[in-house]
User: Fold this.
Amino acid sequence: MLKKFILNSLSSFVGAWIAFALFGVAFFIVLFAVIGKFSGGVEDNSVKEHSILTIELKGIIEEVEKPATIDYGTVLQGEIETPQTLNKLVKAISEASVNKNIDAIYLKCGGVAAAPATLHALRKSLFEFKKSGKKIYAYGDSFGMGDYYVGTIADSLYMNPEGSLALTGISSTSLYFKDLLDKLGIEVAVVKVGTFKSAVEPYISNEMSQPARAQLDTLYGSMWNFIRDEIASSRKINSAEINRMIDVDFLMLQNSKYLLKKKLIDRTAYERQMDGILADCLGRDKKKLNFVSPETLVAQNDWGTNLNSKNQVAVLYATGEIAEKNTRGIDCYTLVPIITELADNENVKGLVLRVNSPGGSVFGSEQIAEALKYFKSKGKPLAVSMGDYAASGGYWISADADRIFADPLTITGSIGIFGLIPNISGLANKIGVHPQSVSTNPEIQINLLEPLTPRQHEAMQKFVEDGYNRFISRVSKGRHLSEAKVRALAEGRVWSAITAKKLGLVDELGTLNESVEWVVKKGKIGDNYDVAVYPKQNMTLLDYVLASGQLESLSDAIPMIEKSTADKILQQRIINLLQQRPVQARMPLIEVKL
Assistant:
């Protein structure tokens, strides 16, 4: 109770007056934007003959659309935006491949920020598009890793004469902050199972352990070899030569002449020239070029929208961290009823669970896993399609599937459990708070204001080990592997899906669409079926604003507070530490963005 009182009081005191002041401003801007949206007429969603699908490879690419939300913190930091989604981009590319009015795809590379598996899925959909005989063209003022990886699938790759190519391999930096916690007066007791379960390390150490470093070396090496080989194949150059150019020639510092000589790009051009180049390539008049957005093409395709179909394959998205009453990630209290309804719905003939999660609450993971077991008890096929991550709790909810599909660059595994029990008595003393407790059963009282006793620590360790044994058992039964083998490859270690397939943790390297096709075949559903995407998304007021194009007026109306990325990460990590359930099935923080 004291914990909730302190946290709620601080957040309420600081935030209430800000929220009150901002609410009126934001409300009226939102209202006027919506009025403008609907008074401006109906948008023309038709696709004219000889059109070009234009994809902006910039900013964040998320897994799937979610209802937009707004709060005073979001407004203050100017972070109100509609990110692109993999779901929508793949859908648009698929439609472009069969739409007779689309002649080509134009990739405008401008700084994409997405995980490797997302970019590979996008790249693979573009590869499938090329089978239609249509061309892909790509341009960038400069190229980052992600832009270039996707862009190399293009038939022609153009770059600004003054541009550069930041091809650097895969790396990441983790923040360790034991010293910070010491200064704040916060101690963290750790209970865990798994040599490689390194998610706890930043709280208790100032440096990375050797097991943690070893697993990242293996993981990144596997992923980089795959990406490098795909780039080399597309550009028709030697894979080893790419490493040499990066390490010896300092590729990211080389100019466009070097890139042309090494066949890393096809031609230099300024962006203003690209309309003329595209017109020449397609044999058309420059003035008659017609560019269409992914949104326009998605409107032509009803994949995933027919929730009333009598013969449907459900695709259920489970994205984010697993918790209870979680508005931003996977809320087991929301997801479990949906799974149950799908199981009982006679129109649903099979299910693909799309998992993109680093894990989270052990309790939440087990609730979802049991609901999926109930779905299977109805005799319906269940497949899992893994996105960027399906690790720890994300793997817990995947293990019972009839078939597991993953992208080659999916990060999975991390079969292990840990507990973090913070003690903020030092912080309380620093700010003049001196708690005094009275209890009939003091030994069982575990709270933030006292360190664990030896008996409490022993009990917590046993509790975590029991959870780990349940995790091992579920994986063993679901994957048809002996418990001894599961224990050997578990220990909290993360794997790329390429390696996980060899270990038996993954069945096939494939896309979401391929997992749907497997369910159709397994369930003998036939050709006349529909795909229905769940959970059903309801448009919010903010969604209409963002769709109206009035975003800039809202963002500009509110002053922006600048904070360093490191500060934001540390603050959020400490808040999460104090608020999360003490026992977690979550992978270490591995955020690889290309």
